[in-house]
Design goal:
The protein is α+β, with helices and mostly antiparallel strands. It folds into two domains: 20-190, Beta-Lactamase (2-Layer Sandwich); 248-346, Sandwich (Immunoglobulin-like). It is 26% helix and 31% strand. The protein has seven helices and 13 strands. The protein has helices at residues 47-54, 63-68, 121-136, 140-149, 157-191, 198-209, 238-242; strands at 20-27, 31-38, 72-76, 79-88, 105-114, 248-256, 261-268, 274-285, 288-300, 305-311, 318-325, 332-339, 344-346. The strands form three sheets. A five-stranded antiparallel sheet has the order 2-1-5-4-3, sandwiched between helices. The protein has a four-stranded mixed sheet with strand order 10-7-6-13, with no helix packed on it. A hairpin with a 4-residue loop joins strand 6 (248-256) and strand 7. Helix 3 (121-136) packs antiparallel against helix 5 (157-191) and helix 4 packs across helix 5 (157-191). The radius of gyration is 23 Å and the shape is globular.
């Protein structure tokens, strides 16, 4: 049985096909370029494999706008691609007029997971981004510089030294990505031993059916052991299992044709009061996002149902709806895609 947490470099990573991590950067001449892909770096030359990365909407949002959304997701052929953009320190000479050596580097991290595992994506992209920022914020520009000078026809001693330094840092970066990813999945399995969410149970079941061995995570006799995770709890009847509700739930979405508006009813299913929320409605056309509704909400009481009304744009059928906590973490409580073609229509 394949071991997801086997660290032997000679063996093919068991994470392949389950989790892919892309580290990208903005090159002044070439645009967005892959810096590193884990677990298989050769895939950056595969145009078919890189297609969803090339067209991910993360590229078309400013860093400040993207940070307000926590991260941006793309679903494509059974996978969800979680994208996060940030700026980091730079001291390299830029190759475009108007840019100084100190102009920050733009880094994009994208993590792809099968849709069966996308429930883990929010936490994983946040954890991965923070780890990379914490450990490599002052070194990523050296990796980028080393990649750029590889194209030099004549390799001077200084260029060779630059390439070697960037390569060394890249090795450590890959090790960090591998360690973070493996530790994340270890933690996920141990945390979900009491999971009541059907989606989480299905995700754990998916991992186990892939053939990964988790038995060594804890003593097989302890409560943390994978064998004690109850995919379906026999003590709960079917009605109780199906009654599990998400913390924030969209109750209904209706299109009012005469007034060209959309009504979205959302319920707080938690047992706590939510405060300082931002509610946004946007549409994406040709990869550019435009905001058409923004509201601030000071209080949202437990069990309370709220109605939000947003205008719609003629000939635009797809929209994105977000509810985000306006705090330091900018935690996203809900994000959903709304297709007007599938909605019930109400005449005003």
């Amino acid at each position: 049985m394949a071991d997801l947490f086997d660290s032997e470099p000679s063996e093919k990573s068991a994470l392949e096909g389950v989790c892919v991590v892309y580290i990208m950067y903005f090159d002044e001449e070439q645009g967005h370029v892959p810096l590193l892909i884990y677990p298989d770096d050769t895939l950056k030359n595969n145009k078919k494999f890189m297609r969803p990365i090339k067209y991910h909407s993360i590229w078309f949002l400013a860093v400040d706008e993207e940070e307000a959304l926590d991260h941006i997701d793309l679903e494509y052929k059974g996978y969800t691609y979680f994208g996060k953009k940030f700026r980091t320190k730079s001291k390299r000479k830029k190759r475009r007029a108007g840019l100084e050596e100190e102009t920050p580097e733009t880094i994009v991290i994208i993590i792809s997971l099968p849709t069966d595992l996308d429930i883990f994506g929010d936490e994983l992209i946040y954890t991965m981004t923070e780890k990379i920022r914490e450990n490599f914020k002052d070194q990523l520009f050296e990796v980028i510089e080393g990649e750029i000078v590889k194209d030099a026809i004549i390799k001077t001693p200084k260029i060779k030294e630059c390439i070697e330094k960037g390569t060394r840092i890249k090795v450590f970066l890959r090790e960090l990505i591998e360690k973070t990813t493996k530790e994340f999945f270890k933690k996920v399995v141990k945390k979900q031993s009491d999971a009541i969410s059907i989606k989480k149970q299905k995700a754990i079941s998916y991992i186990s059916l892939k053939g990964f061995d988790f038995s060594h995570i804890g003593d097989i006799k302890t409560e943390d052991a994978f064998s004690n995770i109850k995919i379906f709890d026999p003590n709960k009847n079917n009605e109780e299992i199906l009654a599990v509700k998400p913390p924030i739930q969209i109750s209904s979405i209706n299109l009012i044709e005469d007034s060209q508006e959309i009504e979205i009813t959302v319920q707080n299913n938690t047992n706590k009061e939510l405060v300082n929320l931002n509610i946004r409605m946007t549409h994406v056309k040709e990869f550019f996002e435009k905001e058409i509704m923004f509201q601030k909400l000071d209080f949202w009481y437990p069990g309370e149902e709220l109605l939000f009304i947003s205008p719609i744009i003629p000939h635009i059928n797809e929209y994105l709806f977000f509810i985000i906590e306006d705090n330091n973490d900018k935690k996203r409580l809900i994000s959903t895609k709304i297709d007007l073609n599938t909605l019930n229509k109400i005449k005003g």
